[in-house]
Design goal:
This protein is an alpha/beta fold. The chain has 10 helices and 8 strands. Strand 2, helix 2 and strand 3 form a beta-alpha-beta unit. It is globular, with a radius of gyration of 21 Å.
């Protein structure tokens, strides 16, 4: 196996499970030394434990790799700086920052509490900002580095019951784009992964119950079929590539990865345009829009009669 990351040092938040674990193991196999960060909480962010991070560290060491654990929360700049400090104190540098840490507090918008919204934003948005900022302080000085953040298809396309999560993941795309401009001149690239894989965050209890009910009825959903073949290990190679010196020209991009499919995602752009000299009036728009801009648009959630 070619060691693309030989001699590199990577810090991976949320490295104790799911995508983070798969990436930590893959990067170690590619020759990198790893800081495995994980608070060890539940999917909703409650609690903490050192078990998850330590277990992955033990896995890496058992295969002959180099790794140390870190148990800081990413929700503060101080915590993020401590993650970077762990890399510097143990391995002398930091070349790669991967921000996988995340939680879920799913609920329909009209039932979602302020705390449920804020907690998801704190981990995903502030956590990404804090870790990117802390890593950038080192990478800017050494004039090299790779930062890989994690957005989501929910942030790109939306999903039922995930207003907080979608807002957070959309924000991460914005952070990534801006950081790419801020840091590119220093030899640092910043890209976002938009993965789909079977983890404890995608295979929630509600999803499992729904799939079990469908199985009882003899129904096999497209989602289940997809998840069966979309594993965290499928996403890891693309992250390793982005973290390597080979990807110096890839900056500010969103990369979708699911199973055997990898794609560059284009940012929102105009697909239909109407134009006239001067300002449009409301009356003109009522006349023109249905036959132009709105033609062919389908409401993804049409109104239903009250039951």
């Amino acid at each position: 196996m070619a060691e693309w990351l030989k001699g590199k040092v990577a810090a991976i938040t949320g490295g104790g499970g799911g995508l983070g674990r798969a990436i930590a193991l893959a990067m170690s196999e590619q020759g990198a030394s790893i800081v495995v960060n994980d608070l060890g909480g539940s999917v909703d962010g409650s609690g903490s434990s050192q078990t998850a991070a330590q277990k992955v560290v033990d896995e890496i060491k058992a295969k002959g790799g180099h790794a140390v654990p870190n148990y800081e929360s990413v929700t503060s700049v101080q915590g993020a700086e401590a993650i970077v400090k762990t890399a510097l104190e143990n391995f002398g540098k930091l070349d790669i920052m991967v921000t996988c840490a995340g939680i879920l507090r799913d609920r329909m918008l009209f039932n979602m509490s302020e705390q449920e919204f804020d907690s998801v934003i704190a981990v995903h948005v502030k956590g990404t900002f804090a870790c990117v900022k802390a890593a950038s302080m080192v990478m800017r000085q050494q004039r090299s580095g790779r930062i890989i953040t994690f957005t989501s298809s929910t942030g790109l396309f939306g999903n039922i019951g995930q207003t907080n999560y979608a807002a957070a993941k959309s924000a991460i795309t914005g952070i990534t784009k801006c950081a790419a401009y801020d840091l590119g001149r220093y030899g640092v690239t910043v890209n976002a992964m938009a993965p789909l894989a079977a983890t404890r965050m995608t295979m929630t209890e509600d999803v499992k119950k729904s799939l079990a009910l469908q199985a009882e009825k003899g129904i096999r959903s497209g989602f289940e079929t997809s998840i069966d073949r979309m594993m965290p290990e499928d996403v890891a190679p693309a992250v390793c590539y982005l973290a390597s010196d080979l990807a110096a020209n890839v900056n500010g991009q969103v990369i979708y990865s699911a199973g055997n499919e990898i794609a560059v995602v284009s940012p929102p752009r105009a697909v239909k345009t109407i134009w006239k000299p001067g300002r449009w009036t409301a009356e003109e728009l009522v006349e023109v829009v249905p036959q132009t801009l709105a033609q062919g648009i389908v409401n993804p959630a049409p109104a239903q009669e009250a039951k």
